[in-house]
Structures are given as structure tokens and as C-alpha cells.
């Protein structure tokens, strides 16, 4: 087993976007890769975005990736470079409202004077679902 030790460099912690990117990096290897947040004593399969988010990892938390398997040497080399150089880029600065609204609507839609909610893209593709505007900080009120 090989280990990569690091401090979480993400100012906003390990949330959806960086968790998805880390999962993508880890999923290309046959080796078993475990993410550990030492502050929380939480372990997760590094090939699962939801498991990574569940570790509650915050900025500067002591973390490690344990890599075990037939391609562990190559995986460690590539993942260590990713963590040291590119991982922080997955936690980009959130755009301002002015930047979000800089994309005008087509005239046919703007005539309807809609209430708009802007979001940020996590990954390319098409999303389908029902938009729900939360009115409370507590998810208990939606059970």
C-alpha cells in the first residue's frame, strides 16, 4: 500500500465539484483508493463523489489517499501530481451575480419578465429534475 499525505488546499472544503473531479482522477486506476480525513477520522472510497463529500473535509484538514493494487505505483505518481498541482483548481472562485447575469436572455423570454435563478455547472451534460426553491435553512421542514 502506498500513501499520499496532504493538507486540503480547497478554501471551500471538499464539496461537489472538487469531489467529482477527484473521483474522476481516482476512477481511472484499478487499485483500491481510500480517502482519509484525519481530523474527522472519516474514510471514503475515493471513487465515489458522495462518499468523498461525506467525509466533511474542510480547508487545511490533514488528509491522505491510500492506494493498494496492481497499478499503485503509477496511480500514486499521477495522483500525487494532481493533488499538488491541479486539485485546487477544482475549487474555483464562485462567480458574482453580475457575472452570472451577464448572459442575457433571448428577447422572447425576457418579455415574459421571469424570476431567474442562476446556477453553476458541475459537469457537462444535461440535467433533468424538478427545481425546488428552499424557503428554510433546515431540511427537516421538507420531510
Automatic annotation (TrEMBL):
It comes from Escherichia coli. InterPro entries: HPr-like, HPr-like_sf, PEP-utilizing_PTS_enzyme. Residues 1-90 form the HPr domain. It comes from the Bacteria. Pfam families: PTS-HPr (PF00381). This is HPr family phosphocarrier protein.
